[in-house]
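ENCODED BACKBONE
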Amino acid sequence: MEPNIIEIDNLDSPELAIYANRNESQLLHINEPELGIFIAESPNVIIRAMDAGYEPISFLLEKKSVDKEARSLIDRWKNVPIYVAEMDVLEQITGFKLTRGVLCAMKRKEYPSIESICQNARRIAILEDVVNPTNVGAIFRSAAALNMDAVLLSPACSDPLYRRAARVSMGTVFQVPWTYFPKSEGSWNGTGMDKLHAMGFKMAAMALDDKAIPISDERLHSEDKLAIVLGTEGDGLSDETISKCDYTVIIPMTHGVDSLNVAAASAVAFWELGKKE
């Protein structure tokens, strides 16, 4: 079967509106009440999405990549429309500076339940209102590399499937199990934390506090199930969240520095607390 390659010289076709005229929030809601779509960028990210069971809708490629970076993708999905164009045409897409000349529109999947991804987990990360896609992507990459079994996100967090988040993560958003705390079940740091406590997890809030313990504290390492809770850029965790955690934890600093960026802090925390005994 020959690939379904369609050469284009402009982005006016209705089929290309998802690439040229829709922002990521619009793509998320485009099929409501059915599931939305997302755009994945670069061959490695797209391959990891496919391996995780995400289904392509179409491809948009730089023409020269057809027989290079995108060849394995084309061979894998010959029945999917593959739009190809010169780079000057692709650069008309506002905000898209292509990485290796490959984009793929993909169908979303239902979010799994907290119970299903945490049932056999030992170490998980919880993100409270982390809104920068770059930080979300970087946290996922650290989670994948440093033994986190799952990531849970509060409803206000940036979507891990947004193009920048997935790209910064190097596709690990498709490898680490994750889900959102459901809005329908009350506040994440109320019923959500209660649910995790009932599953045997202790909560470790990463926050500046006079009563905080250092991240090397043996009590943290001895916990069978531990959730590492990280807060929004700038303000950090809410007081309510900190008060409901079992531990407040700091990373000891030098030279008068009081804290790290949330993505950097996550890497340190995951490395220390994700160690396998």
